[in-house]
Each structure stands twice: as structure tokens, then as C-alpha cells.
């Protein structure tokens, strides 16, 4: 149970010896104050039945294309090595089949390690119409034939002008057409309703996918300092893997070049801890004998370099270009059945992402207080379903400010507020509670 009198910053209190996750950075986009209340009450986000059902659907999707094989691990280095092995084989699966799922990524934000898992990486464009619009505008920009105009797009999509404002981070010089092997990132979300969210309700998903793209691109460019990750988890990058690990790897079926799976490595701290195994072609299997390969890369330092080499082979990048498309897609599925409800696509915007991450890191470092929902209409929906509504001082102040107490408050809010005040209810801040 977190100490209510602890005045340290959120990152000192809750992530001092752990990596931040992409979830840590994007969940506050819904409501920072709700996330703060969750951390101070539970130390983490408490999993709801809906979240557990969502994980079940994710697992079902994974199992459509994957097989898991257990691997024995003895040391921390073994367990982290499994994750790097999974990444390597996931990249090979992408090259061989055009699709890989649950691909881990690592990034460094203001000196702090951030980890996550991309739901799907593929060579198939999920929204050809939107991509065609982007490519057309690229051609116009290159030729200078016409000014970029504000396109009429759904509220949840970045406009073409917005796209080009952040385009510098994708490819310094616009290309008239996409690379032959363009890579697309997507994320699966489950919903209880049959509607697809739009507008501000998509912000956290947009930031999530933008972070995935940024981290994957930086990994492929070998811009992520591995020693920061090893130091955080207290790993010896030059220690040999254990004999048990090597023996377990040797038992992998020769017809596969698979990423092994293991459980219980809490230090990975990814959004979804399911590891994967995907079959490769017989040619690839013969080229990558599991035991020979692991013996050739028998330390984390060597295996990390091997993983970077696989990334560069799969995702060629240069200072002016990347084969990772700026087109990012959220796929919404029924929480009950897993059936597809719909998709939302939008363009990567480096400036929007940088501004958002800067603001969130300021909160994590205790440089500013957590904030509630700013917009009164947005608050009317979010506050209504928030389990912390009755103790939220931000909500009470927002209701007073806009004179719409009936819209934001439950029938018992006045009694609850009076009780909270009489008991000295604290004002939630990022550095104190």
C-alpha cells in the first residue's frame, strides 16, 4: 500500500528501479489525475474485468499465428536474453510471412528507459485510401505544384498539413511513393460497445502508436544505449548464459527458427507479457540453428548487437529516410467475441509527440502537478465513469467553474464533498498526496 505522506515524485516513488512503460506515458492522456489516484492507492493500475477480457482477446489473436515453447532460465541474463531472442525471431517472421505480433521495443526518454510491445507489425497497408492521400500530398510538396491545403478529415485523424509539419522525423526529403517494403504498425483495442471512438477519446492510442514508431525507428538506427537498460536491471552484459538455458535452446525443433517463451521475468515490465513463437521457412531454419546461434552470441552484449543487425536487415533506416510508414492504425475489436468493429488511422507527428512526452515527463519527475480533464464536455463523460469521481477535487472545481454541477456530479456528490472536507481530504499533487 503506497504511503499517503510520501512527497517524492511519481518516478521516484513508483519507477525508481523499474523501467517506465509506454502505458505509463500514454494512460495519463485519458486523465492524469485518475492515473495519479490509481498509483497512490494501488501502486499500479488495478486490472478490471474488462481489462482481463481484453487480454484474453489479445491472447486469442496471438495464438492464430503463434506457438509457444517453454525455455529454462537460471539467471537474470538468461531471462532478458529470451526477450532479445524473441525480438530477433519476430523480425525474421516479419520478413518471412509479412507479419509479426507482440514485438518488444525499448526507448530512452530524457535518460529514462521506456519499454513496450507493438501488437502488430506488417507489410500490409491497413488504410490504402489514407496512405494515397499522404503520398499525393508528398508529391505536391516535392514538385511545389500547389500549396498544402487543410483537408476535411475525421476529428480523430491528423490533417495533411499536420502530417507535413511532423514529416521531418519520417523522411527528410519527401518521396513520391512508398518504399517497396514499407512497414506498418497497428494496435488492437477491445471495446464493450460496437462503436469506434473518435476525436479526443483516441489521444492515448495515438500517442502509444507514435511512441512505438519512434522507438522502433531509433532501435533500427542503433540509437538506443543498451548499457542504460542493462544497468537499470542490474544485468551483466558480458556474463555467459547458463548451461540450462543453452540446453533448453538446443531442444528447439529444427524445423523452426522460433522465439522461445518463458514466464515470470517481472523486470521486462511490458504492456502484455505474452511471449511468442513463430515458424520460419525451412531455408531460414537451416540458416539459423538455435544452438549454434546462441553459442555465437552467448552474452547479452553480443546478443543485443545481433538483434540490432536483424533490425537493420529488416528495417533499413538512414538520417533522411525510414521504411516505417507514418501511417499508424488502431484496430477495435469486440471485447465479447473478438470480432472486428472498425479501424482508425492517423499520421505520425513528431512535434505533437515531442510536446506530449515533454509534458508527461515533467509530471513524472514532479515538476508539475497532475491535471484532470480540461474540457467540460469531455469531463462530462470521463468523470461519470471514473471510480475516483467522489474524491476528485479537480472535478469539483471544474463543476464550480463552469456552473454545471448537475452535469459532472453524481446525486450524492454534495454530501461526499462535505464529508471529504470535514475529514481534511488532501489535494492530489504529483509530488505529494
UniProtKB/TrEMBL annotation:
<dbReference type="GO" id="GO:0005634">
    <property type="term" value="C:nucleus"/>
</dbReference>
<dbReference type="GO" id="GO:0051539">
    <property type="term" value="F:4 iron, 4 sulfur cluster binding"/>
</dbReference>
<keyword id="KW-0411">Iron-sulfur</keyword>
<keyword id="KW-0004">4Fe-4S</keyword>
<dbReference type="GO" id="GO:0045145">
    <property type="term" value="F:single-stranded DNA 5'-3' DNA exonuclease activity"/>
</dbReference>
<dbReference type="GO" id="GO:0036297">
    <property type="term" value="P:interstrand cross-link repair"/>
</dbReference>
<keyword id="KW-0479">Metal-binding</keyword>
<keyword id="KW-0540">Nuclease</keyword>
<keyword id="KW-0378">Hydrolase</keyword>
<dbReference type="Pfam" id="PF09810">
    <property type="entry name" value="Exo5"/>
</dbReference>
<comment type="subunit">
    <text>Monomer.</text>
</comment>
<keyword id="KW-0408">Iron</keyword>
<dbReference type="InterPro" id="IPR019190">
    <property type="entry name" value="EXOV"/>
</dbReference>
<dbReference type="GO" id="GO:0005739">
    <property type="term" value="C:mitochondrion"/>
</dbReference>
<comment type="similarity">
    <text>Belongs to the EXO5 family.</text>
</comment>
<keyword id="KW-0269">Exonuclease</keyword>
<protein>
    <recommendedName>
        <fullName>Exonuclease V</fullName>
    </recommendedName>
</protein>
Amino acid at each position: 500500500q503506497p504511503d499517503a505522506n510520501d512527497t517524492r515524485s511519481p518516478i521516484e516513488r513508483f519507477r525508481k528501479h523499474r523501467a517506465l512503460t509506454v502505458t505509463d506515458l500514454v494512460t495519463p492522456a485519458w486523465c492524469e489525475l485518475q492515473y495519479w489516484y490509481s498509483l497512490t492507492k494501488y501502486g499500479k493500475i488495478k486490472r478490471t474485468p474488462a481489462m482481463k477480457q481484453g487480454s484474453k482477446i489479445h491472447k486469442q489473436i496471438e495464438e492464430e499465428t503463434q506457438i509457444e515453447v517453454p525455455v529454462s532460465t537460471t539467471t537474470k541474463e538468461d531471462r532478458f536474453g529470451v526477450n532479445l531472442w524473441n525480438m530477433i525471431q519476430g523480425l525474421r517472421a516479419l520478413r518471412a510471412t509479412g507479419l509479426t505480433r507482440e514485438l518488444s521495443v525499448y526507448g530512452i526518454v530524457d535518460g529514462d528507459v521506456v519499454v513496450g510491445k507493438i501488437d502488430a507489425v506488417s507489410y500490409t497497408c491497413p488504410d490504402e485510401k489514407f496512405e494515397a492521400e499522404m503520398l499525393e500530398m508528398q508529391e505536391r510538396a516535392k514538385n511545389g505544384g500547389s500549396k498544402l491545403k487543410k483537408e476535411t478529415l475525421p476529428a480523430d485523424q491528423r490533417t495533411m498539413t499536420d502530417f507535413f509539419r511532423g514529416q521531418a522525423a519520417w523522411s527528410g526529403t519527401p518521396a513520391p511513393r512508398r518504399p517497396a517494403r514499407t512497414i506498418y504498425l497497428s494496435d488492437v483495442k477491445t471495446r464493450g460497445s460496437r462503436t469506434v471512438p473518435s476525436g479526443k477519446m483516441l489521444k492515448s492510442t495515438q500517442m502509444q502508436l507514435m511512441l512505438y514508431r519512434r522507438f522502433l525507428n531509433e532501435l533500427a538506427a542503433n540509437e538506443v544505449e543498451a548499457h542504460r537498460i542493462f544497468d537499470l536491471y542490474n544485468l551483466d552484459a558480458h556474463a555467459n548464459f547458463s548451461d540450462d538455458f543453452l540446453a533448453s535452446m538446443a531442444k528447439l525443433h529444427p524445423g523452426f527458427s522460433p522465439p522461445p517463451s518463458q514466464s515470470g521475468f517481472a523486470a521486462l515490465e511490458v504492456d502484455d507479457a505474452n511471449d511468442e513463437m513463430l515458424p520460419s521457412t525451412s531455408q531460414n531454419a537451416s540458416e539459423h540453428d538455435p544452438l549454434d546461434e546462441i553459442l555465437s552470441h552467448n552474452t547479452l552484449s553480443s546478443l543485443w548487437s545481433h538483434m540490432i543487425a536483424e533490425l537493420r536487415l529488416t528495417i533499413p533506416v538512414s538520417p533522411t529516410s525510414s521504411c516505417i510508414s507514418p501511417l499508424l492504425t488502431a484496430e477495435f475489436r469486440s471485447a465479447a467475441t473478438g470480432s472486428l468493429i472498425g479501424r482508425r488511422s492517423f499520421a505520425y507527428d513528431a512535434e505533437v509527440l515531442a510536446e506530449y512526452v515533454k509534458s508527461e515527463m515533467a509530471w513524472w519527475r514532479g515538476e508539475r502537478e497532475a491535471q484532470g480533464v480540461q474540457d467540460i464536455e469531455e469531463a462530462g463523460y470521463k468523470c461519470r465513469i471514473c471510480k475516483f469521481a467522489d474524491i476528485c477535487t479537480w472535478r469539483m472545481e471544474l463543476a464550480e467553474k463552469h456552473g454545471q454541477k448537475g452535469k459532472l456530479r453524481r446525486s450524492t456528490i454534495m454530501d461526499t464533498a462535505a464529508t471529504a472536507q470535514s475529514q481534511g481530504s488532501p489535494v492530489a499533487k504529483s509530488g505529494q498526496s
